[in-house]
Structures are given as structure tokens and as C-alpha cells.
Specification:
The chain is an alpha+beta fold. Helices cover 37% and strands 23% of the residues. It contains 15 helices and 16 strands. It has an eight-stranded mixed sheet, with helices on both faces. It has a five-stranded mixed sheet with strand order 13-12-14-15-16, with helices on both faces. A three-stranded antiparallel sheet has the order 2-4-3.
Length: 419
Amino acid sequence: MIQAPRGTRDVLPAESYRWQFLEDKMRKAAALAGYREVRTPVFEHTELFLRGVGDTTDIVQKEMYTFKDKGDRSITLKPEGTAGAARCFLESNLYADALPCKMYYLDAPIFRYENPQSGRLREHHQFGLECFGAKEATADAELILLAFHLLEELGIKNLSVRINSIGCPKCRPAYHQTLKDYLAGRIDQLCDSCKERFERNPLRALDCKEKRCQELTKDAPSMLDLLCDECRDHFEALKSCLDGAGIPYSVDSRIVRGLDYYTKTVFELVTATKDGNLTVCGGGRYDNLVEQIGGPSLPAVGFGMGLERVLMLLDSEGIVLPRPNQYDIFITYMGQNRGAAFRTVQDLRAQGIKADMDHCGRSLKAQFKYANKTGAPLSGTIGDDEAAQNALKIKNMATGEEKTVPAAEAPGVIRNMIG
């Protein structure tokens, strides 16, 4: 039997309402802050990610789905959303419009060839916000607060925010040298990946998932001690905004994120679970990305949030999302009144009422049994008498209450009965 590829999963009709509920909340949260939707291709030229994400990252080195197309061009399925949004922003000359340019993407498929893990599959889906052209720390704080309040509104508890600054091209080289000096005496004990990164990007050693490397770097010097005045002022302004908003946050000098384009602010939203802390959202500032892919020098900031991970958290905390009825009413018919039932269904749908009928040739008893299985709160029956009177017998499936009404009055009666 053909099966779904490892690391992917189907969203079944019985559960898609949960995705739709979450997506609706995300769209409203983005719109409230002036973010508008962008939809970019599911694949891009590989060079975009080499230049933007960085060839020292695990994503580029180990996790990208890259292939040659029939024109011998190197193509990559999107391993993250920001680089594609930046390419779109640049290619469409959106930087010539009034800035900042606020955009979001939703239910965007992201592909990473890694061992499937809890809340992250080889194909997973992200909600991401990108703000181009805003240099002030208020833009960083706005995104952090938007993500925090969205998750809080969904009912996720034990949320906290962790922030850090990883500096800029002016102050980061000095920190790189300080970090290399610290790691030099320990390099033989680092994992192979960190050894490879040592010369080009030693900062990535702080983000290594190997326990041995985490232990070796736990006392490493902090970038916060070597920030330039501009980066320090920006970080202090961010903390001031978060203090004013009254949300729980802490400074964590080990947060560097897994992408090379980040500058200054990096942040994560974390929730405590029975299995330990889980990062549910991450992002930061990337003031050089647009320039790195061939555009003007423009500041930018954004975040990404995995939909699968949010849904997993909702399940783990026992949060039940409202399930809509598949139908408001299920129409049954007796004898030769199939045509009348079909016309009734179409008329009700034209009035915005979710209605259906039997399409499998069931008996009347089997029709009622099926109607009950669908969870429809009401059933409507058309027998010979109802057909002759152009009427509909409506039954409340929970109470058994019945009433026969003229077909013209049926939509209003149905709305009243289902509230």
C-alpha cells in the first residue's frame, strides 16, 4: 500500500476544523497590528538560502531538500519562510513604498530533512510575520507581544519570553574572537559540527544540541558584555518596552537562533510542559538580510511559529477547540420524494444553512440513523403530505420535538431552533 512519506502527515476532515480555528485566530492577530498576507512559492533558487540563511547552519548543511530541475537549476524546497519573504519584498520593489512593510504568511509548508520530532515534521507549517524597514526596538517588542498574547488567548499557560542580543557586524567580530579564544583549549572535545564552525561562525557552538558541547560552553563569555553602544541601546529599549507591557521575560545569553542572518535581537517564546521546556515561537532582527540578497540596506524583524507545535500544546494542556456542526439540518425523504428533498437542500444552502440529504439510496430508518451519526442538530423530513403542502417537518434530534412549517418559513425556523 502506498503510504505518506516519513515525516509527513495527513490532516483529516474530522480534525481540519482545529487548523481552521487556529488560522482564523492568527489572521485576526496579524490584521490587528497591520500585517497583510503574502504568499510565496514553495520552492526557491538554492542560492537564496545559501546567501540568506548561511552555509554554516544545520539547515543548509544537513536539512535542505535540494534538487536539480529540468533546466539544470538548483532548486530548494523552503526550509524557512523569512528568506522567501525578503526575496519577494526585494523583487517586487516594496521597499519603494511607504515603510515599514508588514507582511505575514500562514499555513506555509516548510521542509527540513531531519529526524521527525514532537511538533515538527519533515513537512510542517508555519505562521510567520515579517516587518521590513523598521529599525526601532518597538517593532521587536510589537512582534513579541503579538505572539505572546495570541498564545495566551488560545489558552496556553506557563508562557515566558527569552531574549538576547547577538550584536551586529560592528561588534560581533570582537566577540567572535573572544569566543574562539575561550573555545580554543576545548576544540578537541567539541562535536564535529562545532569544529567545522569554529573558524567561520563560532557563535553557532552556543546553539549546539549536543550535551557535550552544551557543557563545554556553559561558562562561555556573553555577547552582552561586548555590545556596541547602538546594540546596547537597542536592547535596553526592547527591555523597557517589555517591562512596560508587564509580560514575563528573561535575558538568556545562550539564545543565538539557528540562522546566520540574525542581528541584534533574538527571542523565543517558551512554555513549560511535563516533558520540559518547549519553544513554540522564535524570531529576531535581521537588519542585513535584504542587503545580503542584493537589495538596499534595510532593517527588518520577524518571527516564525509552527502550527503543528501549537496544536500539540493545546492537546497537551487539554484545551478543546470548538467543533462546528457539519450540518445544521439533514433532510430525509420518504418514497418518491427524492427530488423534493434535493430542491429543499439547495434552497436551504442558498439561505446560508448547512444542509445535506441521503445520496446512497438508504431507507428512511437508515437515513435517520445516518443523520444522527453526522451530529446534525436537526432533521427535516419530506413525505407525501409535506410534498403536497410544500412543507417540511423539522425535528430536534436531541429533544425529539417536531414541527411542520411551510417551506418558505423553514430557514427562519431552522435558525431559531439552532440558536
